[in-house]
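Q: Joint fold for the lines below.
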Amino acid sequence: MESDTLSDPLANLITNYHELNGSTVDELPAVPSALEFMRYVARNRPFVVRGGAKHWPACRKWNATYLRKVIGDSTVKVANTPLGNADAIVEQNEGSLLFVEPHETDEPFEDFLGYVQEDSTFPEDRLQDRHVKYAQTQNGNLPTEYPSLLADVPPDVPFATEALQQPPDAQNFWLGNHRSTTALHKDNYENIYVQIIGQKHFVLLPPVEVACANEQPVTRARYVPASGETGKLVIDVDEVAEAVPTPTWDPDEPNVRATAYSELSRPLRVTFEAGDMFYLPAMWYHKVSQSNGPEGFAVAVNYWYDMSFDGGFWT
Amino acid sequence: MESDTLSDPLANLITNYHELNGSTVDELPAVPSALEFMRYVARNRPFVVRGGAKHWPACRKWNATYLRKVIGDSTVKVANTPLGNADAIVEQNEGSLLFVEPHETDEPFEDFLGYVQEDSTFPEDRLQDRHVKYAQTQNGNLPTEYPSLLADVPPDVPFATEALQQPPDAQNFWLGNHRSTTALHKDNYENIYVQIIGQKHFVLLPPVEVACANEQPVTRARYVPASGETGKLVIDVDEVAEAVPTPTWDPDEPNVRATAYSELSRPLRVTFEAGDMFYLPAMWYHKVSQSNGPEGFAVAVNYWYDMSFDGGFWT
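A: Joint structure:
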């Protein structure tokens, strides 16, 4: 592969991209102006503002006691997976791949939060049969499922709303713990991501690395409760749904399902702390894991803005 | 071709681009802010501000008398071509292609301007043996060759300088007449183009139409005076220079040197009048012809800003 780089336009493209772009995520000294933000959108490059949201009421007020108080036993949607592999590729014994969505349950918030926190009290070897819960609905769940938290976060990100000339399309709330990892994927949204409690660890690939990510049509499936075995989840294949192109390469297991181009990938790795504000440009691949805050869970909020599909970039 | 569009990713790309983007150049009601400009840079889309430069001293003051007065007999660089085909593809009798640069001469400005104006006094059939002159050096010639005009135009375009965080790389002066046409080409600059006298007619193709433009390595050549025949220009092939990738398709002769994709091209055609300000995004193909103002010539000024080569767009 290496010796072919010069003659292979795709390899050249990836290599040139890395030569022209930094190998780290830019750190801005303060929340950007709309113009400063638009320069990043134009270049489709990420940035982080360390502490950029630390003055948000959410960053000052949210903890287990406060969340229990204001959300109480309201019903929230919870993603259940056996191993924390939410929306992930699962390789079957015979080698075929499935994209498995979580088993979704409606639970009183207090019960859900308690379960998430209790994970930290188990020794590692006793966790294996205890499935993983994660609030991660990504459908604008903050105003619909968590309306009592709305007062603690701004309704939009002003610099992004001004630059992109639109309000956010969705405002999402994420609560989980160290056991959940979101597999490598991309979204067709401009994403402003704010860590509130704990840490999130992002692995990032620019869109030019599409040839590294080994996108393949993968059959859809879903975890469902095993009949007769309480708490056990099994995979239910969706025989009807069309297979959807899905990245099948994992930058943390670079030799598994690699393409000839995967070794050219230069993943950016960045950790966000409570109060950090992150711009994840549209169509960037990202894999996300998390570390708990002091009370055994992590919380984030994000704002999705519709990306521009005109111009040339979306290609 | 048409029936293959669905299965051919490149044809799909071009067709989708046209579906998602307008078929005209946006007209802005006023000179944009830096942020408004940056949105166009981000989308790599052109716009025109009709009359956006009409308050410039150049637009009020420049005419043949004024230019003669302030430039006088200063030496300027003039491009000479037999047919007005400056920097153009020339097909040889045997079918091979050459990219022929003009014969460049140093001339007193007054003589040059007189020659350009006199073209309008000749009947068409007597012009054929009279070669065409065009001031079009494109190397930042305004400050170097026309310093006496600098006071009449702003040193930069403030919204572009603010947005792109840099002064212009070059400020160019163009003076020619209806006989000169610049062949389809692209520049790796963000271009702010201001018409001062007469009209310019642009034919524009977005970068996604690269497959329509039929870029091929073409041998370099140059017009040189024929020995012993005053005023006659002949082609001198540069046997040493490497052939350079050059668009060989002409949207005004769509059936000549067309590729399988050329019929998918949807050229934008737009005419700029005196006082109009135009943003030509980096890497857009453009072919430019002109119409004379009231005194038999056309003048334009443009500002080239270095494009951003980082981010993903340059690909």
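Q: Anything notable?
A: The longest strand of chain A covers residues 215-225. The longest helix of chain A spans residues 9-20.
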